[in-house]
User: What shape does this take?
Amino acid sequence: ATSQLRQHAIPEAFALLIARLDSPLPAVQAAARAELADFNVDRVLALAEEFPIEDARRAGQLLMKVDPEAVGKLRRALAHAVVQKRVTAARRIGRLGLAEPLLSSFATLAVDPDPIVRRTVADVVSTLEGLEPFRLLSQLVDDPHPRVREAAAQGLERWEQALSLSQTSVTADPLLEGADW
Assistant: This one.
């Protein structure tokens, strides 16, 4: 039945197919993936900058459900031989909210010979949390190219601001004021 939803123009077919991606039955999941196969890495990357940011994030999450091999395909996009394609892929992957599972690829790009690629890495990684993104930004602060250093410094500055805001909100909590820890 899942493979017939779009063919018979069932109302809400896409919503039903998306719901079936979470089915406990592997055959139902496979049928839903097959029906949604045109929602693929190439198409989502091509449209990533057209979506409002929240829609782009949802599209990224959906892509991961539709295509279990999406991470590998995105890694290949980041490793493209053409510099501009690597830059575009990195930017779009960041917009889709998919940079975190690709951190090792971004670490490789952090030493790319092209400074535009390294700067894009700094921009994308600065939106992530965790020790590895922090390490990458710290590494890029010492980059030989001034624009890369600037982007990495700005990324680290955003982290510091976010950290100070989170500390301020904790100390401003009336339940925690005067607490004897």
About this structure: DSSP finds ten helices and no strands in the chain. The radius of gyration is 20 Å. The CA atoms of residues 23 and 173 lie 42 Å apart.
